[in-house]
Write a structure and sequence with these properties.
- Keywords: Nucleus, Transcription, Transcription regulation, Transferase.
- It comes from Ophiostoma piceae (strain UAMH 11346) (Sap stain fungus).
- This is Protein AF-9 homolog.
- This protein has helices at about 130-140, 160-165, 185-190, 195-210, 230-279; strands at about 15-30, 45-55, 65-70, 80-85, 90-95, 100-110, 115-120, 145-155.
- With about 280 residues, it is of the alpha+beta class.
- It has two domains: about 15-160, Sandwich (Immunoglobulin-like), CATH 2.60.40.1970; about 230-279.
- The strands form two sheets. The protein has a four-stranded antiparallel sheet.
- A hairpin with an 8-residue loop joins β6 and β7.
- It binds ligand SLL.
- Ligand SLL binds near residues 72, 75, 96, 97 and 99.
Length: about 280
């Protein structure tokens, strides 16, 4: 693809990851915990939201510009365009009765030169297929979470975009992050997919460790669909060290063999010279 104007060249050999979370959180209507607002049709059994957001509500709008959420056709205006607001999740809130697949189209900032990318997510209203512990957590929170952790890879980003991605974390005012789609931490712990279970718990610690909104840090551990991390980096380094050691070993062996051959050659030359002198 020809580079868009003003974004510079691509930064060769550079890969930048930005973690994010997308999914749905739904709640059954309940007279006490989640009363049905006036005007909601009788057959609607749940309120729910679908979102794309940063891990621990870190800002992602500096690389993600807008998200198009395509809902079921039975819902009025099923195609929703949501533009990013700094520090806020991209979110659509709805009510309904049935589960369906939501199509999410991610639009990156223009400096990225990236084409939009499509993700799919199944809206979960019911706690099917969860284990007892998860069901218990859902009973406590009244929520059915279905979240997926994802890492957005920018492969050889354009220079201008690289600058934006790496130009230092911006601190968000307290209270900006955390609004909206996330629900309580308990809801996160009760998340359905194993990817979410594996990813959500450690992220809190990890982001404290410095995966800030804007920094070119490599993720700390390997994750699904993410071949690059500090872990794999260490493995690569170890592999390179091993390779270096074996090359060094081979070189030493060859040098030793060479030395023996040179000695043999010198001896043969001496013999030949002596033979000629003597004969
Ligand atoms: C099903 N295949 O039959 C699915 C379709 C559609 C859900 C589910 C409508 C909400 C509204 C709604 O919940 N549709 O009328 O705004 O289960």
């Amino acid at each position: 693809m020809a580079p868009p104007s003003g974004v510079g060249k691509r930064v060769k050999g550079c890969q930048i990851y930005r973690p994010f979370v997308y999914g749905t959180t739904s709640r059954p209507f309940d007279d006490k915990k989640n009363p049905k607002p006036p005007g909601v049709p009788d057959d609607h059994t749940h309120s729910w939201k679908v979102f794309v957001k940063g891990v621990d509500d870190t800002d992602i709008t500096y690389w993600l510009r807008r998200v198009q959420f395509k809902l079921h056709e039975s819902i009025p205006n099923p195609v929703r365009m949501i533009d990013g607001e700094p520090g806020k999740p991209f979110v659509v809130e709805e009510t309904g009765w049935g589960e369906f697949e939501i199509t999410l189209k991610l639009y990156y900032i223009s400096e990225s030169g990236e084409k939009p990318q499509t993700l799919y997510h199944h809206l979960r209203l019911h706690p099917y297929g969860r284990n007892d512990e998860e069901r218990e957590a859902m009973r406590e929170t009244g929520q059915v979470p279905a979240w997926t952790y994802e890492e957005q890879l920018f492969n050889e980003p354009y220079e201008a975009f690289y600058e934006i991605l790496t130009s230092g974390a911006i601190a968000l005012p307290k209270g900006v992050a955390g609004s909206g789609a996330t629900g309580s931490p308990a809801a996160g712990g009760a998340s359905s997919s194993s990817a979410a279970n594996a990813a959500l718990a450690p992220i809190g610690k990890r982001s404290e460790g410095g995966v800030l909104a804007r920094s070119a840090m490599v993720p700390l551990t390997s994750r699904q669909k993410s071949p690059f991390s500090r872990e794999t980096e260490q493995l690569e380094i170890q592999k390179l060290k091993n390779a270096q050691n074996s090359v060094r070993g081979m070189t030493e062996k060859l040098l030793a063999e060479l030395r023996v051959k040179e000695e043999q050659l010198a001896a043969l030359r001496k013999e030949a010279t002596e033979a000629m002198a003597g004969g």
